[in-house]
Amino acid sequence: MFLFPFDRYVLLRHLPQSAVAAEIGVAYGRFTRAIVDTTTPAKLHLIDAWRSQDKPELQNDSNNVGQDEQDRRYEGILETYGADIATGRVAVHRAWSHEAAEQFPDGYFDWIYLDADHTYDSVKRDLEAYWPKIKEDGLLLGHDYMWHAKVPFGVIAAVNEFVERHGLTFVGLNTNDMFPSYILARPGSRAARALVADAIVSTACVIELQDYPRRLEFEPRALTHKGKSRVFLGFKAKT
Ligand SMILES: C[S@@+](CC[C@H](N)C(=O)[O-])C[C@H]1O[C@@H](n2cnc3c(N)ncnc32)[C@H](O)[C@@H]1O
Q1: 39-66, pLDDT tens digit by residue?
Q2: CA dist 202 → 5, 35, 109, 195 (Å)
Q3: Element (H or E) spanning 130, and its range?
Q4: N or C: which end of the chain has fewer CB within 10 A?
Q5: What is the pTM of this model?
Q6: How far is the CA of 193 from the centre of ligand 1 (A)?
Q7: Using a 6 Å cutoff on CB, does residue 31 contact ligand 1?
Q8: Is residue 2 exposed (0-12), middle (13-18) or buried (19+ Cβ within 10 Å)?
Q9: What is the mean pLDDT of residues 142-153?
Q10: Distance, CA 172 to ligand 1 centroid (Å)?
Q11: CATH number for the domain running over 2-206
């Protein structure tokens, strides 16, 4: 596994361009704009329920906004990408993520970016639902491989278990973000090798961690200094 010291906007530069891709969890389209401008997808599926949820775990989630705001966000996406929707380059799916997965044939996507409900059960369900939909040489990425002080994120556990269950390669994490994004692929993936090579030749100080998550455990750590607190990436050997 590689630690890439750039943010997720730079990560987009290293993804397959002109791809068939999906963003799962869109909100008001902040990252969508970067996906479109940086990777010029041949086809981009935008999947979000745009529904206010009363699940207790999501009550402190800043993206679990009221229904009026959800409607405004959905309408905003339709308006912003109206021309691309008309040409078929962008498709908008207002649906629960795991249900939307059923619409796509197996082996359809070059890559997806998962950023919907971050609770353990939902991440696990989305990973399982979308993995078969990705090409043999495709990439599965997702946001928020981190702990959250107020929202019970289950991303780390769900992703690590998924990697081990399917014998996948944990390609890497981008580390110049408060909330890193993870990159997964099948062993021997050419797309993953190209991403890593591209990132290494254009970035100083990429770090490789061997046998993650099999022998190493990610343990985010917290530090308070001069009145400021930060969580940072800690790793320890599994006992
Ligand atoms: C963190 S936001 C997405 C942020 C966006 N990817 C970005 O980086 O700008 C999460 C979004 O996922 C949506 N969402 C949450 N649970 C979902 C589910 N089960 N199915 C579909 N969408 C969901 C929410 O409506 C919200 O808009």
Answers
A1: 999 999 999 999 999 999 999 999 999 9
A2: 11, 19, 26, 11
A3: helix 120-130
A4: C
A5: 0.97
A6: 29
A7: yes
A8: buried
A9: 91
A10: 22
A11: 3.40.50.150
